[in-house]
Specification:
Layout (H helix, E strand, L loop, with lengths): L25 H16 L3 E10 L2 E11 L8 E10 L4 E11 L6
Antiparallel strand pairs: 1-2, 2-3, 3-4
Protein name: Gas vesicle protein
InterPro entries: Gas-vesicle_GvpO (IPR008634)
Pfam family, one: GvpO
Length: 106
């Protein structure tokens, strides 16, 4: 049997805090940045290192496998900074770092 809830007169139900429109938050920005970058540079994306709100959109740092090698620990990866507008359109990208898989940050 379904449970009924009652509200007292003069007491409104609490609503969750406002959130960005569905599909336009950081997850959407990360997915869009990965897909756009893969199409442009032709390399497989490994993941996302950072997503941050930018002036009029998003800045996403995407990690890319640039040179696969055997053993895998010697493969070369790169981090690309991808700028997207509010609608997820790619504005610009640039490679900001290149490194060997498994290498610790200095």
């Amino acid at each position: 049997m379904a449970e009924k809830t009652r509200t007292r007169p003069g007491h409104a139900k609490k609503t969750p805090a406002s959130r960005p429109p569905a599909g336009r938050g950081p997850e959407h920005a990360a997915n869009t940045a990965c897909q756009s970058l893969e199409r442009l540079i032709g390399h497989h994306t490994e993941g996302v290192s950072a997503v941050r709100r930018h002036e009029d959109g998003w800045c996403v740092v995407v990690d890319v496998l640039e040179v696969p090698r055997i053993p895998d620990t010697t493969s070369l990866l790169a981090s690309y900074e991808v700028l997207l507008d509010q609608d997820g359109e790619l504005l610009e990208y640039s490679r900001v770092r290149r490194y060997r898989r498994g290498a610790a940050d200095e």
